[in-house]
Design goal:
It is elongated and about 70 Å long. It folds into 2 domains: 151 residues, SPOUT methyltransferase, trefoil knot domain (Alpha/beta knot, 3-Layer(aba) Sandwich); 58 residues, tRNA(m1g37)methyltransferase, domain 2 (Trp Operon Repressor, Chain A, Orthogonal Bundle), CATH 1.10.1270. The strands form 3 sheets. A 5-stranded parallel beta sheet has the order 2-1-6-5-7. Helix 8 crosses helix 9. With 228 residues, the protein is of the alpha/beta class. Bound molecules: adenine. The site of adenine (ADE) has 12 residues, from strand 5. Adenine binds next to strand 5.
Length: 228
């Protein structure tokens, strides 16, 4: 998969993309992430990328020209499955959305800033808008990093044990069961006996029951989706 990220602050991605699973995915060639500085596509003398809103109002608006130029130059070389604008107004990022995005070949993620982007970009160049939650961030960069992480870890060959993505919380609309490791007794705080029993069937049953119980307690809204 190729992910092209359009941003005014490419350095913001340095940390999340240079560590852990995302780094491994890049090193293995499972994903190519290209950062594009929108400012490089401004023709203004001062590389301007924002301007005052028509009709007045607070804040600045990201201008259409640099963004359009950047998207169109990428589209000349590559066919994109989706051109996604990271926005608090968008469809909520869920595990289902991440699963669906993880099978695509090429996507663009556009990160907004200031008061937003010129509406004509959304009307004519964007195919989808995604939010990572009902709160407003200073820009779309952190949201794009979250989406990238959620999507890339699902791609084959990224996680060591491929089944471990399948057993993530939310994969089957259930929260994951509790997990434990050595020692089996710490200050008298004991690991449940069943996990030490070696009985795979009983262990699987226990895990499923704990998942359902935990979901009922913490996220009962998910159980409707799972048909419980
Ligand atoms: N940009 C600002 N806030 C955002 C959010 N909650 N999700 C995605 N992009 C955003």
């Amino acid at each position: 998969m190729q992910i092209d990220i359009l941003t005014l602050f490419p350095d913001l991605f340095e940390g999340p993309f240079s560590q852990s699973i995302l780094k491994r995915a890049k090193d293995k060639g499972v994903v190519t992430i290209c950062l594009h500085n929108i400012r490089d596509y401004s023709k203004g003398k001062h590389r301007t990328v924002d301007d005052y809103p028509f009709g007045g109002g607070a804040g600045m608006v990201m201008m259409i020209e640099p963004v359009a130029r950047c998207i169109e130059s990428l589209k000349e070389k590559t066919n994109y499955d989706e051109v996604i604008y990271m926005s608090p107004d968008g469809e909520l990022l869920t595990q289902k959305v991440a699963n669906r995005l993880s099978v695509l070949k090429n996507i663009i993620l556009l990160c907004g800033h200031y008061k937003g982007i010129d509406e004509r970009i959304r009307e004519h160049l964007i195919t989808r808008e995604i939010s990572i939650g009902n709160y407003v961030l200073s820009g779309g960069e952190l949201a794009a990093a979250v989406l990238t992480d959620a999507v890339v870890r699902l791609m084959p060959g990224v996680l060591n044990d491929e089944t471990s993505a399948l057993s993530d919380s939310f994969q089957d609309d259930l929260i994951s069961p509790p997990v434990y490791t050595r020692p089996s007794d710490f200050r008298g705080w004991k690991v449940p006996d069943v996990l030490l029993s070696g009985n795979d069937k009983e262990i699987a049953k226990w895990k499923h029951e704990r998942s359902v119980e935990r979901t009922r307690q913490r996220r009962p809204d998910l159980l409707d989706d799972a048909g419980f």
